[in-house]
Amino acid sequence: MKRTASFAAALTALLLNSCALERPPEKRDVNHFLADARDLASVRRVMVLPFAEESGVVAECTRIRDAYVTELQKLRRFEIVPLPDAAAEVQQLQASLRHGSVSTEGIVELCNRYRVDAVLAGSVTAYRAYTPPRLGMRTQLVSVHSGSVIWAVDALYDANDRSMQSDLRHYYENVETHDGNLHGWEFDAIAPTKFCAYVAHRFVGTWSEG
Fold first, then answer.
1. Pick from 169, 202, 197: nearest CA to 184
2. Does the pLDDT value for residue 30 go beyond 90?
3. Does the chain have fewer CB atoms within 10 Å around its N or its C terminus?
């Protein structure tokens, strides 16, 4: 009787696990803020600052920002103007961001020099390149006309999290152009460039989601 009961329990557990594995992948919500459409209407030219590392974080900021810019360009919503790393305003703006604000003086200087409508600043809050990868970011788009934040996203993507794995599968099956690799969606969690592209896509996708 005990052996029969144990077998039945094991079979039940196996069936439950199978059902969980067969569950369709789901796209998860992303923590974000998007201003009223009237505040967004004047945004035609956007300056993207070099991404910064938050305290205690070591990250490949150039790779991450490049992935973000690529996704922004796919929106075809505005012209993207990446700010050169050597620009005089970079350190001033990044220092102000670390204190939770954006330098008004720096924004005005950028507006006058590059004739932009908004400035996008990003910081990497968590990063792990090796498997399982981890990437956390905080981005905000600041209007140079009003000085206010009109778009902000703050999220963490950790491949150890089951909801993220489901979200990554959803991205692989519904968004990504497949290149024929034999690993399927799991390859996106192995290759750092692909993982960055996935996270950037989810961040930028909040613009159209509203």
1. 169
2. yes
3. N
